[in-house]
Amino acid sequence: ISQHNPTLTWTQYTKTLEEQTRKNVDITMKLRHALAADQLTLYYQPQVDLASGRIVSTEALLRWQHPEIGFIPPDQFIPLAEQSQLIGPIGDWVIRQACRDIRRWHDAGIPVTPVSINLSLIQFQLGSVPDTVQKALSDYNIAPEWLTLEITESVFEQHCQALQLDLKALTAMGVRLSLDDFGTGYSSLGHLKDYFFDEIKIDKSFIRQLDDNPYRQAIVKAVIIIAQAIGADVVAEGLESTSQIAIVRQLGCSKGQGYYYSRPVPEPRWRQLLIEQMPLGANHQ
Ligand code: C2E
Ligand code: MG
Ligand code: MG
Ligand code: MG
Fold first, then answer.
1. What residue's CA is closest to ligand 1, atom 8?
2. pTM of the predicted model, to two decimals?
3. N or C terminus of the chain: which is more exposed, having fewer CB within 10 Å?
């Protein structure tokens, strides 16, 4: 806190802390009802082939619309869902909802692309991730390769016995695994050595300020070379400008997502994008 506001006194600080705690307890209580009250939805953000701007896949991102508070961003409620273990039922809902949506697009004759969803470490600790995935795939009759599971690097910072077994079981099942926010955790290479990932997502913090920064560019280039060496796809996250796109392409990255192409959109809009099959990004040559 002192970092953000150096003039904050101790009394003010503890008061803010108290307020924050009270707010968190309140949000957690509301989150308990969110699922049953139908307040959660999935938004979809396209992942595009950088050469053509064509949509090749999508990331499902959880959204919570509370009737009184309004929109609550995932960065605020996911940590609370993890602390309260509500991430168990919420995470199960995300898995099933993504599969349900894939099935609906298929049935509507829409050309479907693979869907990525995000998983928390706590979901693995609570158990049953492979079972939940298996059941969702079979209930909605979805081929495993339509689903990619994104796991942020930070999951490896805590010991979790279930994780190793579960990731192996999921790979055996045929779903794709993606290492999210690559480069933000420690010992990034260690995780690549111990697990099999089909995809690596370069964190948006690396993409920022790539222009005129040969040092950052060299790091991104190295990540792309490592990914290629282990046969993994690379996705650049947080692409916001044509110059960033030009640079990551030049460094050898062929797939990306970011506001430049599209923000995450509600399902009806996503469905429309799939139907239109138009290349995204205004200045694509
Ligand atoms: P993430 O998985 O790394 O997702 C990418 C985030 O970057 C999303 O934020 C997305 O909206 C944002 N983003 C995409 N393009 C750009 C861009 O060009 N610029 C900038 N500044 N941001 C961009 P969002 O949707 O707020 O989600 C934040 C995080 O919350 C996610 O990061 C993920 O870790 C977590 N999350 C979201 N949905 C779920 C979920 O269903 N389950 C779990 N466990 N975590 C989730
Ligand atoms: Mg992600
Ligand atoms: Mg990410
Ligand atoms: Mg993230």
1. 61
2. 0.93
3. C
CA-based nearest residue to 206, from 185, 192, 187, 176: 185
3-state secondary structure 178-210: EEEEECCCCCHHHHHHHCCCCEEEECHHHHCCC
Residue 62: its pLDDT value, please? 98
pLDDT, position 251: 95
Residue to probe by mutation, ligand 1, list 61, 97, 243, 248, most atoms within 8 Å of CB: 61
Hey, what amino acid is at 77?
A: F
Q: Which ipTM value was assigned to this complex?
A: 0.98
The pLDDT-based confidence of 101 (bands split at 50, 70, 90) is very high
Return the bridge partners of 187, or none. Answer: none
How far are the Cα atoms of 152, 154, 216, 226, 259 from residue 212, in angstroms, in the given order? 28, 29, 9, 23, 21
Structure tokens at 216: 């950052």
Count other C-beta atoms under 10 Å from residue 116's C-beta.
24
Hunting for tokens 């999508």 — which residue is that? 58
Residue type, 106: H
pLDDT, one tens digit per residue, over 194-240 is 788 999 999 999 999 888 899 989 989 999 998 998 899 999 999 99
